[in-house]
Amino acid sequence: MDHKQRLIKEALTQRLNAYAPYSGFKVGAALLTSKGEIYTGANVENSSYGLTVCAERIAIFKAVTEGETEFMAIGIAGSGEGYTFPCGACLQVIAEFAKDINIIVVDDSNNIVEYALKDMLPQAFSLQK
User: Fold this and answer.
1) 70 found inside a domain
2) Residue 127 lies in a domain
3) pLDDT tens-digit map of 66-123
4) Does residue 48 fall inside a structural domain?
5) Is residue 124 part of a domain?
6) Which of this chain's residues are annotated to bind substrate (predicted)?
7) What is the pTM of this model?
């Protein structure tokens, strides 16, 4: 199984762990580090919507708190129709750590597409030179 399929499989599994009682929209993410480790996340909603955290950010924050900061790819699976893409906040957080990362998404028919972060967020904000 190649890394794309592996990440999507993990993202689909993590989607089952999402806490989405308000929107009903569940998302799972799986993040591949440069060391070959995978960190996962699922969205966690809150009745105060602004406190909701996306699956992608949870996976990244888990990895960073374990000392990982070099990422190669992230797989994302949502429960809606079509592809589930990272929101702007998630794209910016991804860009903080991995400007050359690939973003892999799956639709409800199990079709997989891959994008470079620079194509999804061409003008990312950065304080780094």
Assistant:
1) yes
2) no
3) 999 999 999 999 999 999 999 999 999 999 999 999 999 999 999 999 999 999 999 9
4) yes
5) no
6) 43-49
7) 0.95
Annotated binding site for Zn(2+): 54, 87, 90
- Main-chain phi, psi angles of 5, to 5 degrees: -65, -40
Binding residue numbers for substrate: 43-49
Catalytic residue among 37, 56, 68, 81: 56
**Total structural domains in the chain?**
1
Q: How many CB atoms lie within 10 A of CB 49?
A: 9
- Given a contact cutoff of 8 angstroms between Cβ atoms, the answer to whether 97 and 69 are in contact is yes
Residues in binding site: 43-49, 54, 87, 90
Alpha carbon distance 35, 18 (integer Å): 26
| Whether residue 56 lies in the annotated active site | yes
Q: Which domain holds residue 85?
A: 3-119
Helix axes 88-97, 55-65, angle to 10 degrees: 20
Q: With 0-12 CB in 10 A as exposed, 13-18 as middle and 19+ as buried, what is 105? A: buried
